[in-house]
Amino acid sequence: MPDQQINKILLVGFRATGKTTCGRLLASSLGWGFIDMDEELKKRMGKEISEIVREKGWDYFRAKERLLLKEILFDSDDKRLVVSTGGGVVLHKDILSDLPGDTLAVWLRASLETIQKRMSKDSATAHMRPALTDQGDPINEVMEVLREREPLYREFCHIAIDVDDLSPAQISERILSYAR
Ligand SMILES: Nc1ncnc2c1ncn2[C@@H]1O[C@H](COP(=O)(O)OP(=O)(O)OP(=O)(O)O)[C@@H](O)[C@H]1O
Ligand SMILES: O=C(O)C1=C[C@@H](O)[C@@H](O)[C@H](O)C1
Ligand SMILES: [Mg+2]
Predict the structure, then answer these.
(1) CA gap 107, 7 in Å, rounded
(2) Strand 8-12's sheet: what is its strand order?
(3) Domain residues of the chain, as ranges?
(4) What is the rounded CA–CA span in Å between residue 29 and residue 140?
């Protein structure tokens, strides 16, 4: 856990675990700034994530994501900020393993079933969540990618919240108790 006043909260977790939804709510409850990394990358590049990946590939997307993460953590003007990260931010292991002392990383942990159900229902999946593996199907590949990423979420996050049976408001409430 951070040993000083918390100024930044990073919401981390797999696709469709509610990082964007809960982050917006949490920032508004705290009266802090808010940034959604995927939305920011889309805005900066003027394209949907699916287009960026189709045209330039995942390595290019990760390079841009990495620069943005560093900028947010180390050069942001906003003193207090809630950050909804992209699902793959744990791949930037060197950054996540050396977070500033005022930054709390929260893992929104959901079951395979919840993730697949939410991804299938969410119209944003088509343009925000292109396939990550050779399987070519973002829903079918979830188990394989989760298996790789769960140890990273566990290693880098200070706290985990099981979100399957909680509403966004309940999740935001839980996180609030750590930030005050
Ligand atoms: N606690 C919740 N209970 C039920 N549905 C939820 C909850 N949180 C989010 N959702 C729904 O799940 C879907 C995905 O949510 P959201 O976009 O916030 O996830 P995300 O973690 O930001 O995903 P990504 O990593 O792809 O950006 C949305 O349709 C949202 O309405
Ligand atoms: O899990 C991932 O690697 C990703 C999740 C989304 O938030 C986007 O950042 C993008 O689709 C990559
Ligand atoms: Mg999101």
Answers:
(1) 17
(2) 33-36, 81-84, 8-12, 103-109, 159-162
(3) 8-179
(4) 36
Please work out whether the CB of residue 168 comes within 6 Å of at least one atom of ligand 1. yes
- Radius of gyration of the chain from Cα atoms? 15
Complex ipTM = 0.98
What span, in angstroms and rounded, lies between the C-alpha atoms of 41 and 49? 8
- Residue-level pLDDT at 76: 85
Q: Whose CA is nearest to atom 11 of ligand 2?
A: 129
Q: How far apart are CA 1 and CA 135, in angstroms?
A: 37
| CATH code 3.40.50.300 for 8-179 | yes
Q: Is the pLDDT of residue 61 over 80?
A: yes
Which residue CA neighbors atom 7 of ligand 2 most closely?
86
160 close to 154: Cβ distance less than 8 angstroms: yes
